[in-house]
Amino acid sequence: MDYLCWSMEYYNTAADIADVIERLKAERKSASVSEKKELDTKLSQYKIYYGECMHIADLLMKRYEGVA
User: Fold this and answer.
1) What count of Cα atoms within 13 Å lies in the side-chain half-sphere of residue 4?
2) Residue 4: which residues within 8 A CB-CB, separation 6 or more?
3) CB contact burial 16-50 (16+ within 10 A = b; e otherwise)
4) Which end of the chain is more exposed for a tag (fewer CB within 10 A), N or C?
5) Could you tell me if 55 and 17 are in contact, meaning their C-beta atoms sit under 8 angstroms apart?
6) Total tally of structural domains belonging to the chain
7) pTM of the predicted structure, to 2 decimals
8) pLDDT at 1
C-alpha cells in the first residue's frame, strides 16, 4: 500500500476544503442574517471535514515514515 500517495490525496482534499472555507467566509461578509446562520452551519461542517482530512493525512504520513 502506498501510504505516501494516500496521505497526499488527503492533504490535497484538505486544501480543497480550505478553499471552500475561505470562499464561504468571504460570502458570509455580505450575507443577510438568515444567510449568515446557514453559512455558519456550512462552515462548521466544512471545518470538521478539514480537521478529519488533516488527521487522517497525518496518520498515513506517519505510517509511511514508519512511526505508526
Assistant:
1) 2
2) 60, 61, 64
3) ebeeebeebeeeeeeeeeeeeeebeeebeebeeeb
4) N
5) no
6) 1
7) 0.90
8) 80
Q: Grid coordinates in use for 46? A: 466544512
CA distances from 1 to 10, 59, 64 (A): 15, 14, 9
Neighbours of 60 (CB within 10 A): 22
66 is written with which cell numbers? 514508519
Q: How many residues does the chain have?
A: 68
- Where do we find the cell 498515513? 60
Q: Who's near 61: CB < 8 A, 6+ residues apart?
A: 3, 4, 7
Q: Which three cell numbers stand for residue 28?
A: 458570509
- For residue 45, give its domain range: 3-65
